[in-house]
Amino acid sequence: MSPLNRQQLNQIRDERREEIKQAALKVFARRGYTGTKMSLIAKEASISEGLIYRYFNSKKELFSTLIEELMEEARRELEHVQHLPGTPFEQIKNLTENMLDENNKYAFMLIERARKDDDVPENVTRIFEHLPTNGLIDLLVPVFIKGQQSSEFSPGEPRKLLTWYFTIVISLLTQEQEDEEYGLPDVEVLMRILTK
Amino acid sequence: MSPLNRQQLNQIRDERREEIKQAALKVFARRGYTGTKMSLIAKEASISEGLIYRYFNSKKELFSTLIEELMEEARRELEHVQHLPGTPFEQIKNLTENMLDENNKYAFMLIERARKDDDVPENVTRIFEHLPTNGLIDLLVPVFIKGQQSSEFSPGEPRKLLTWYFTIVISLLTQEQEDEEYGLPDVEVLMRILTK
Amino acid sequence: MSPLNRQQLNQIRDERREEIKQAALKVFARRGYTGTKMSLIAKEASISEGLIYRYFNSKKELFSTLIEELMEEARRELEHVQHLPGTPFEQIKNLTENMLDENNKYAFMLIERARKDDDVPENVTRIFEHLPTNGLIDLLVPVFIKGQQSSEFSPGEPRKLLTWYFTIVISLLTQEQEDEEYGLPDVEVLMRILTK
Amino acid sequence: MSPLNRQQLNQIRDERREEIKQAALKVFARRGYTGTKMSLIAKEASISEGLIYRYFNSKKELFSTLIEELMEEARRELEHVQHLPGTPFEQIKNLTENMLDENNKYAFMLIERARKDDDVPENVTRIFEHLPTNGLIDLLVPVFIKGQQSSEFSPGEPRKLLTWYFTIVISLLTQEQEDEEYGLPDVEVLMRILTK
DNA sequence: GATGAATGAGCCTTCATTCAT
DNA sequence: TATGAATGAAGGCTCATTCAT
């Protein structure tokens, strides 16, 4: 007799939750934790302010959830790099292009802000304390070493070069310069850092 | 009756104003506009909250003043590069080291945040609308061209290469990674972007 | 086409309405007007939140309805005392036991809260303004006087003694002390107030 | 050079804190925890809403502080009873009159509400879990026994009789019936419970 | 000039109420 | 009829700003 069955309701709930997360991602990424008003997220998601709280207990929880899920996603993507087709150079290039892609940009922007900003919920701070910046970098070290063996990459300490490289990549994508004159540097140019 | 004459009072005022700006710079740079409470600035400057308002009408004005003065300072510094001793490569290298220096870092961090963040007073947003990122870059183009003529720098469109280069430098210094494993990339490595 | 005829539907409606009132009584009595969330009533009645509004226009109306009906019920019960079997002493004792009985307790608790609490809808406040505490007491005065004539009750102003007595009885039953050491005072002890 | 010295400031702070507690006591006692809006307390104290938060971190803390201090005060008063002049009967009578006094009334009302109401901060609930209603009663048992030995009080289990007696007294003073016809029962009448 | 108490607008959050199904 | 998702007004709390001293 129920107007919608349980499965339909669950699906609606999941979709709505996903919409809220997408909206929150966009706003948090641009404005940071404190600078983001729940009303802005609500407007971005085209829903009322109150509704957010049926899906997330608080602004803090919404933010944390986002960060945790994005971190996990990033980890999966980095792990996956070694299974991409092509040489190590092509694998890293592929990853870089992916990171700079419009669709993934917000995710990395937000992670970056969450890591750098001081005005972030304590539990989020703790996530990054336990995971050093370059923690995820280790997943790429084997790929890089293979590239060094095939002389695609320049010699030198792998973790160090990779860390520098991704420091640059990540900081670049927080720039939002699409509409400006030259856009982001070509990936090929960026990769000079690794290839000399 | 007055124990201090007008000139001394003015000097005290100026010093106090400067202290407040220094404190504000530090806190704004780390926490952004919205994330910064006036009470934090007061504490950083070791004064009472109310006193700030004797020197600046509002948080917004304090922030704007800071940005405007830092922009002017940056402009002066860039203009001065061509008068530095040494070759164009050495001049740019010198500038870069200066930017990454601990003492100047906050200034560039703050400018960077002010330019990127969305939660910033409207009049500050307007400053950057009228001044494209690479507006200041034009000041360096003559130096770069001289370096190209002497083959210190790689050929290519000067504004484009310089823009990419400083995009990277500026975004790097917002990272605050002193305490981490590898620190910032060596300036020499960064300049590969310009020299190939 | 309809599987139930109008009469059956009406009966269901009435039963449902009654269930909601019972649930509301329990929750309002324990938590007061402001402290009671509609969601708690819904849960207590094992129905959805929205459904309550098919039967009552608002929380306020639900509360008022409850109070009015309970007041009427109380009035009927007090009126009925004189027709109970036994002496005046036994009649009053019987009434007292009835009031302290687990099943009737919530009703008196709620009336008591509605009368004392300040955070109650205005129209409920008005009910009690027009009806002094001891308004209902008058119904018992004849019984009491009969008891005085038969020397069951001590001499003294009947309304005054009865008011004091029921002030005590009613305030006692708001105590909810079942789980504590001594429970409520014996009715016999309480009635010393009336018998000296 | 400071306009007010530290001692003066501390005194102002203490007075203000006390004013807020007095106002809060009055409003909480009448309206309960949930039913009390901070704005009402502010109005009662003739200050702004925000100022309360310079003295108490939250509504919850204000409430808890109040309860804890009142409990401690009550304990002291009960302990003191045995040192009052007069016979045990007179000592208890004195205490009772004290409790029913207009000035102390709110304190007992609030304690009573805090103990009975369900919508109260968790830490307050815990205070009463660890301290049974009649926990404080034990302080009076020696006095009562002395009164039994001198035949001022009726025989019977002291804790039980005292508990019943104070259950009645406390619930009476929550009644707020000053303006009504008969006021509260005479203390002498109440004490019949103890003297038979 | 300097302090910190005081104010009140605005943000996060809750919950009575409405609405689509 | 029944459900629970959705809304928005209002309350708790923060913090930029003002003010008395």
TrEMBL record, chains A, B, C, D:
PROSITE patterns: HTH_TETR_2 (PS50977)
Coiled coil (residue ranges): none
SUPFAM superfamilies to which the protein is assigned, alphabetical: Homeodomain-like
Key words of the record: DNA-binding, Transcription, Transcription regulation
Residues within the DNA-binding region(s): 37-56
Residue span, HTH tetR-type domain: 14-74
Protein name per UniProt: TetR/AcrR family transcriptional regulator
